[in-house]
Amino acid sequence: MHDLSRLVSSNGTLSAIEDLFPKETYLVGGCVRDMLLGKDPQDFDIVTFSDVGTLAEKISQRLSSSAFWMDKKRGVVRISRKGSNTIDISSPKGKDIESDLRKRDITINAMGYDLCDKKFIDPVCGLADLDHGVIRLVSEENLRDDPARLVRCLRFSVVLGFPVAASTVALLKKHASRLRTVSAERVKQEFIKALCGPNGSSFFALMETTGLIDALFPNIRYQDISMALRGLRSALFLAREIDGLVYDAEKLLPGSSQELAQEVEAGLSRACVLRLAAFVSGILHFHPTGLSGRGPDSTVFITELGILNAAEICSSLRFSSRAVSTIKLTLASQKLAQEILSQRKLPIRAVHLLCEVSSSCLPEVLLLALAWKRSAGEATFEHDSLKEKIQALWSHFLDIYQVHKQSLLIDGNDIMQTLDISAGPVVGRLLQEVQTARAEGIVNTREEAIEHLHVLRRAMKERPDVKRYR
Length: 470
Description:
The chain is 57% helix and 9% strand. By secondary structure, it is α+β, with helices and mostly antiparallel strands. The chain folds into four domains: 4-132, Beta Polymerase, domain 2 (2-Layer Sandwich), CATH 3.30.460.10; 134-216, Hydrophobic Seed Protein, CATH 1.10.110; 222-400, no CATH class; 412-461, no CATH class. The strands form three sheets. Strands 3-4-5-2-1-6-7 form a seven-stranded mixed β-sheet. A two-stranded antiparallel ribbon has the order 8-9. A two-stranded antiparallel ribbon has the order 10-11. The longest helix has 24 residues, at 383-406. Mean pLDDT is 88; it is low at 464-470.
């Protein structure tokens, strides 16, 4: 374990303001924990028994930054520094610093450091738990006071890779139902922080261990306990598979890691959304209301009703409309993706259609499809074949679909002029047909594309079930 005094004095931010700290001013919480772990804290939490506003003003002036009240009633000021650490300065929650620390969530977050007297403060043996790598609640009373700590315990376990102490697991189970009293926004923030870690899927396993799944997903109900267990096993397996596939995504789908790192909302990457989509799809696969299905070629898919249910689950946790839309599209594309992967030879028309309908989340679609194949045991025996198919599909997307999109042979105006038709959905369908024909090698020039339009028009005229252009 590192020497805290040396770490504090050598920290650039703290050393720049150390002469400003009045008596009874303390470094507390996660920043102390991180420094003891040898990490550079992203944020600093300071508790002072002096005037919070005055200290914050002095620090902000010294650091050429801005200070604002985060919570004036509770006496919390934040100093925001662009491109650097933030500093939160707050009033104590008790008569002395030990009382303040005893009100915190877990023991490893309940350590402090006296910035004036250079003393380490550890009233609940947080250092011992940090040494042993254990997540332990400070007290049951603190959990009752703020049930959000139910899910915070799990988040810290996932992020730090520490197991949850058995006594804490028992308390989490005992008070699991209290999570329903916590605002969805607070729960979502813990979700995001947990899912975005390299082992984000372990968050779901911990929820199962501590009995939080029913509290977090109340709109999924099973009448048959055996089906519930199958759904849970499926969900946990898929989530674990996705962890590994996200880690290896760049090898499997070159260039996809940058896409998966893109945020769909603040702090929530596409990779995190994929983990949630995998878990939810696994839960729904064995749902008794028929929310999932299996095609004649053993492909697994989520029905339209199931997709709506998945969207409802995610919306209830206050995920953004963009995140929910990504999950819906990822699940809706599974049937086509798995049908393609089940073919001996990739069907170009179907591949091009998949690229068209899921271009905004194709890496997610392909990785989840592979995870489902593995869950069915198919990837064990056909790993090389599946890998080659997925890589060929991804190459088609990069080298053919996207390239063709950027250099169209004809556009919608060309179609309307050539066929003398008005704007409408049929123009888009004809354009897609031409692009598909180009991908298949049927047309290669503008002239061939125009000629293909006439072929399509004649074919549609000969089919009485197709609506007329006008």
